């Protein structure tokens, strides 16, 4: 069982579908998770799915945590509590569980990698769709927790895909007048670069389609990356800020 194996959640449509196709085209055996909530938020279901993949394929080399949802574009005061929490569960609990149960197999692969599909919403302040924003910020922390340790046997990345035309983005008021969309092929290209290992210096950090290319990221890495570059953290008021 020498063929590389990739697991992609939420791959039946949208960005996940494009990414799964690209990975198959690059020679991966791809296990595609459905978009329903239960498989990624139910520990027993996730553990059983991972065990089944390893039993059939013998290994897991790449995990792409793509499954995600967004809450209504309203303020927190107007939000629906059930929808708010469901958004956090899918977008945070899902990647956590997938990472938790895939981890030993990624370690066993020798050079396992995790790509979390994140968003610029994790890094900017906004007062609508707050569950989505909170969940993507939390996902960035998960990426850092699993990717910043240089001695970790697994590399982990945040990949922000820009705005790909999907059912979710077309339904959002924020993109109602949008005429330019991110090409899914560009997302797939950067994913494949991350999966290949050529961008391992960016482990624990965010890369963004439409701004970054594999070549530009390699060049920046050669110049050196500071501890907090492209990570989520507190912006201090200056060098005299007592918070460090």
The unreliable regions are: none
Q: Which architecture does the CATH hierarchy give at level 2?
A: 3-Layer(aba) Sandwich
The assigned structural class equals alpha/beta
Number of strands: 6
Notes on the structure:
- GO terms for molecular function: oxidoreductase activity, acting on the CH-OH group of donors, NAD or NADP as acceptor.
- This is SDR family oxidoreductase.
- InterPro entries: NAD(P)-bd_dom_sf, Sc_DH/Rdtase_CS, SDR_fam.
- This protein is α/β, with parallel strands linked by helices.
- The chain has a single domain, classed as 3-Layer(aba) Sandwich (Rossmann fold).
- Helices cover 43% and strands 11% of the residues.
- The protein has eight helices and six strands, in the order βαβααβαβαβααβα.
- The chain has a six-stranded parallel beta sheet, with helices on both faces.
- α3 runs parallel beside α4 and α4 runs parallel beside α5.
- The protein is globular, with a radius of gyration of 18 Å.
- The protein starts with a strand and ends in a 21-residue tail after the last helix.
- 40% of the residues are buried.
- The mean pLDDT is 92.
What's the quick description here?
The chain is of the alpha/beta class and 244 residues long. It is built from 8 helices and 6 strands, in the order E-H-E-H-H-E-H-E-H-E-H-H-E-H.
Furnish the topology, listing elements before pairings.
Elements: E1 5-8, H1 14-25, E2 29-32, H2 38-41, H3 43-57, E3 62-65, H4 81-109, E4 113-117, H5 130-147, E5 155-160, H6 167-170, H7 184-196, E6 206-208, H8 214-223
Parallel strand pairs: 1-2, 1-3, 3-4, 4-5, 5-6
Helix pairs in contact: 1-7, 3-4, 4-5
Protein name: SDR family oxidoreductase
Family: Belongs to the short-chain dehydrogenases/reductases (SDR) family.
InterPro entries: NAD(P)-bd_dom_sf (IPR036291), Sc_DH/Rdtase_CS (IPR020904), SDR_fam (IPR002347)
């Amino acid at each position: 069982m020498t063929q590389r194996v990739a697991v992609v959640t939420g791959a039946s449509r949208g960005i996940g579908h494009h990414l799964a196709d690209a990975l198959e085209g690059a020679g991966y055996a791809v296990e595609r998770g459905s978009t329903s909530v239960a498989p990624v938020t139910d520990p027993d279901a996730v553990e059983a799915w991972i065990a089944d993949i390893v039993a059939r394929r013998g290994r897991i080399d790449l995990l792409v945590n793509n499954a995600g949802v967004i809450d209504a574009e309203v303020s927190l005061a107007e939000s629906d509590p059930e929808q708010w929490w469901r958004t956090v569960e899918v977008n945070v609990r899902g990647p956590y569980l997938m990472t938790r149960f895939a981890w030993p197999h990624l370690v066993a692969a020798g050079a396992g990698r995790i790509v979390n599909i994140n968003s610029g919403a994790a890094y900017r302040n906004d007062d609508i769709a707050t569950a989505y924003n909170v969940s993507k910020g939390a996902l960035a922390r998960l990426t850092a927790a699993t990717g910043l340790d240089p001695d970790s046997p697994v590399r982990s990345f945040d990949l922000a895909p820009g705005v790909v035309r999907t059912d979710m983005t077309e339904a959002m008021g924020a993109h109602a007048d949008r005429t330019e969309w991110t090409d899914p092929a560009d997302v797939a290209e950067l994913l494949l670069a991350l999966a290949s290992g050529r961008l391992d210096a960016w482990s624990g950090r965010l890369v963004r389609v439409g701004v970054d290319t594999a070549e530009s990221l390699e060049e920046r890495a050669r110049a050196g990356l500071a501890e907090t570059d492209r990570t989520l953290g507190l912006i201090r008021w200056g060098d005299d800020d007592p918070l460090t």
